[in-house]
Amino acid sequence: MAEYKLLKKDGNAKRAEFHTVHGVIQTPVFMNVGTAAAIKGAVSTEDLEQIKTQVELSNTYHLHVRPGDDLIYEMGGLHKFMSWNKPILTDSGGFQVFSLAGLRKIKEEGVYFNSHIDGRKIFMGPEESMQIQSNLASTIAMAFDECPSSVADHTYVQNSVDRTTRWLERCKTEMNRLNGLERTINKEQLLFGINQGAVYEDIRIDHAKRISEMELDGYAVGGLAVGETHEEMYHILDVTVPHLPENKPTYLMGVGTPANILEAVDRGVDFFDCVYPTRNGRHGHVYTNQGKINLFNQKYAKDARPIEEGCQCPTCRRYSRAYIRHLLKAKEMLGMRLTVLHNLYFYNTMMEEIRDAIDAGRYQSYKEEKLYRMAQGPQE
């Protein structure tokens, strides 16, 4: 059984260890997003080990559509399939239901929608999501939910959240059943529930209380970073997180920028994931402690410096801004690979710094200094 050890609190910031069947996760942690069982940008499993990745995140819906979770089960599960022996979290497909709004129909039993690849009809409900994730044999499975739009009205959101709660009960029942089967690869698979409620604090708080009673392995806050302001997001965290169990992991889904992460850690969040570092990297936007820079800018054409002086990532130890800019302009895959490696290393290193700052009881000063430096912008 998983164990979450709270090692230290600094204000509301939590420093913990989460013990799983695939190893110990030091939190706060940023999970590196590999939607289809690979980090976009030609990043290998060896690379992930080199850039301090603790948890890889893959997507249930995408792997169900291609290559198929049955195939991955036959190959021994996702860990064997992608040759990665540390923790993996799979998200449930619920967010794809949100993002594929034009292709879906939501009913009590689940969601009917069309594949974004070949248009074939797919049905996914709580049981199907758990079965797919059990086939994938991830360390942590996410409950199947609906992610309502942040601009949906109160009545719609309340009805949606009520249904998500009923779905969560079905997920828990099905996960328990699957973990007891002889054929199951990972019989220690963990289940995280997801708090929803758009920007309505009454719905958020009530839902947090309801799911906290269900004794799950961890709790996520979903449905943020989907159009609301940063201030609204921080306010929802302020009012919601105190109603989730302090002795379990709290995961803010799909967030975010370095500043978002620093602020959310301060509000008691300890798991994060986001496509920003990989997506931005592939478009030439790289993170530094002085903010983000765009390598496509002409001023970097003859810049012999690394992306960031003193950075120990594989990219900065060897290559110049000028060379990486050339690769990106020439549409050479190596350019994207080098920028993604740097950005993920930057994020993973920032999480290390956050953990060290909480350990030392100086998180506030660390956060303020980091935010101040990044807001200054690059000193050219």
Could you explain how this protein is built, in words?
The active site is at residues 91, 273. It catalyses: 7-aminomethyl-7-carbaguanine + guanosine(34) in tRNA = 7-aminomethyl-7-carbaguanosine(34) in tRNA + guanine. By secondary structure, the chain is of the alpha/beta class. It has 2 domains: 3-274, Queuine tRNA-ribosyltransferase-like (TIM Barrel), CATH 3.20.20.105; 284-376, no CATH class. The protein is 41% helix and 19% strand. It has 14 helices and 16 strands. An 8-stranded parallel β-barrel has the order 4-5-6-10-11-12-13-14, surrounded by 4 helices. The protein has a 3-stranded antiparallel sheet with strand order 1-2-3. α13 (333-359) packs antiparallel against α14. It is globular. The relative contact order is 0.13. The mean pLDDT is 95.
Query: SSE order in H/E notation?
Result: EEEEHEHHHEHEEEHEHEHEHEHEHEEHHH
Which range best describes the helical content: under 10%, 10-25%, 25-40%, 40-55%, 55-70% or over 70%?
Answer: 40-55%
Distance between the termini: 51 Å
CATH topology-level fold name of the largest domain: TIM Barrel
